[in-house]
Specification:
It is a single chain. This protein has strands spanning 2-12, 18-39, 45-67, 74-89, 92-95, 102-112, 117-126, 129-134, 138-144, 147-159, 162-169, 175-184, 189-198, 202-209. A hairpin with a 6-residue loop joins strand 3 (45-67) and strand 4. It has 211 residues and is an all-beta fold. The protein is built from no helices and 14 strands. The strands form two sheets. Strands 1, 2, 3, 4, 5, 6, 7, 10, 11 and 14 form a ten-stranded antiparallel sheet that branches. Strands 8-9-12-13 form a four-stranded antiparallel sheet, with no helix packed on it. The chain is elongated.
């Protein structure tokens, strides 16, 4: 069960030239569900969803888009969000899993109306993710390093209802780096682990229709 509050403001540029906005939010979640690792009666560890406690999520987002007056067909857009999320589990407050410190996006679109072509690019920066949790007798700390992803695309209008799009995603072949520490309840270090996930760029050709 969750209850959320949001407050925002927007400014519109004249002549449909774009918009600037700022939004804040606060969300309270009762009986937040997370997957936990626990020791079963058969001596094996199992991962299963569990109600862990009350969570609080809050943040602020800046968002905007603007057409460039002196360059016909060019528009830029972007947003920056700062996030914070905690949960109180067994009377102890800790960071909520899988919530980055911030997210930043910046992109542009350039339309060439005479030939029905649009090209664009996007830059995405995701902040560090820190989380805690673990087994019944072990507490853990997980850190996922920040990463940057760049995408580009070209869109060609075939008819008013049909487009063809060529996209190249993650063109810099970004790696995902994770680091994990586990401690006994006594405070002594049990294990450390470092993971690296390699990702390759993706090229996608698609036909898009409207009706």
């Amino acid at each position: 069960r969750s209850l959320g509050y949001e407050l925002g403001a927007e400014y519109f540029f004249p002549d449909k030239g774009g918009v600037l906005s700022v939004n804040t939010y606060l969300r309270k979640i009762e009986d937040k569900i997370e997957k936990k690792i626990k020791l079963g009666t058969d001596g094996f560890y199992y991962k299963a969803p569990e109600n862990i406690g009350e969570a609080t999520l809050k943040g602020i987002e800046f968002d905007g888009s603007k057409t460039i007056k002196y360059i016909d067909g060019l528009s830029i857009h972007g947003n920056l969000t700062f996030m914070d999320a905690t949960v109180i589990e067994s009377g102890i407050e800790r960071d909520l899993k899988d919530v980055p410190e911030y997210a930043f996006n910046l992109g542009f679109d350039q339309k060439f109306s005479l030939i029905g072509l649009t090209v664009g690019a996007g830059y995405n920066k995701l902040g560090k993710i820190t989380g805690t949790g673990g087994e019944e007798t072990v507490v853990g700390k997980n850190i996922e390093a920040s990463r940057t992803i760049i995408d580009i695309y070209a869109l060609k209008e075939i008819t008013k209802l049909l487009d063809i799009r060529l996209s190249a995603k993650n063109i810099t072949d970004v790696e995902k780096l994770k680091y994990e520490e586990k401690y006994y309840n006594s405070g002594n270090l049990k294990t450390t682990k470092t993971e690296t996930e390699e990702s390759q760029h993706v090229v996608l050709l698609s036909l898009e229709g409207r009706f």
